[in-house]
Write a structure and sequence with these properties.
Order of helices and strands: EEHEEHEEHEEHHEHEHHHH
CATH class of the largest domain: Alpha Beta
Strand order of the largest sheet: 1-2-3-5-7-10
Number of domains: 2
Low-confidence stretches: none
CATH superfamily of the largest domain: 2-enoyl-CoA Hydratase, Chain A, domain 1
Structural class: alpha/beta
Strand content: 15-25%
Number of helices: 10
CATH topology of the largest domain: 2-enoyl-CoA Hydratase, Chain A, domain 1
Largest sheet: 6 strands, mixed
Shape: globular
Length: 257
């Protein structure tokens, strides 16, 4: 990989690091391609259990690289469709995903973070839907994600004014799950990643899908989908293991079966 680092740790934890620190990890064309490959691989893996997305250096991601697309003769709409496939590949990962935001996260970089299931930020992090400052409209799912996370009026405020907000404000409005001191960020995310990786993969994947679909179904449809998912879970080896461990006051060992 030229622009990202993919590290696999014990227990099925995958760390994907955007690795253009001199450019604040701005996403160039090779990075789009490499992220698509990495997200697809994690999504299809039978051994990966959780994905952590972060940035090298002192930034998470400063958004798309706007310095030019020399040699790329595709129409802009074709490029946007390709970028959208990368965002969809992240959303489609059935395993839990965590954004570890160690610094600035703006534009497409912010929407990549929001596309993860959980967002943990350093107290040094800053956030912005910066598109309007560049004469651009919001992209990479921001128009879909923001109203669901923080409500329509606050979403419009962030997008239309394109303000840069600090970590404390991001936590206050519900943009991130947790803000921790910068020096504690790695340890905090490592703990969450280990807990998620030790969880029941099948049950977590089904719960993640149920939550993702919740805005597009009725209560009756949600209950039906929950019943189907629960029936699948109850028939799994992991549920038997969970019940066995509970009865014997032991820690369950889930295998995704």
């Amino acid at each position: 990989m030229e622009t990202i680092i993919v590290e696999r740790r014990e227990g099925g934890i995958v760390i994907v690091t955007l690795n253009r620190p001199s450019k604040k990890n701005a996403i160039n064309e090779p990075m789009w391609d490499e992220l698509l490959a990495a997200f697809t691989e994690v999504g299809e893996s039978t051994t990966d259990r959780v994905l952590v997305l972060t940035g090298a250096g002192d930034a998470f991601c400063s958004g798309a690289d706007l310095s030019g697309n020399a040699g790329d003769h595709r129409h802009q709409l074709q490029r946007m469709h390709h970028y959208n496939r990368v965002g969809l590949a992240l959303h489609a990962i059935p395993k839990p995903t965590i954004a570890k935001v160690n610094g600035i996260a703006v534009g497409a970089g912010l929407n990549f973070a929001l596309g993860c299931d959980l967002v943990v930020a350093s107290d040094r992090a800053r956030f912005s839907e910066i598109f309007a400052r560049r004469g651009l409209s919001v992209d990479l799912g921001g128009s879909w994600l923001l109203p669901r996370l923080i409500g329509m009026h606050k979403a419009k405020e962030l997008v239309l004014l394109a303000d840069i907000i600090g970590a404390a404000e991001a936590e206050r409005i519900g943009l991130v799950n947790r803000v921790v001191p910068h020096d504690e960020l790695d340890a905090f995310v490592d703990e969450w990643a280990r807990r998620l990786a030790a969880g029941p993969p099948l049950a977590l994947a089904m719960s993640k899908r149920l939550l993702a679909n919740s805005h597009s179904v009725t209560l009756a449809e949600a209950l039906d989908a929950e019943a189907v998912s629960q029936s699948v879970a109850i028939a799994s080896e992991d549920t038997r293991e969970g019940i066995r461990a509970f009865l014997h006051k032991q820690t369950p060992v889930f295998k995704g079966k």
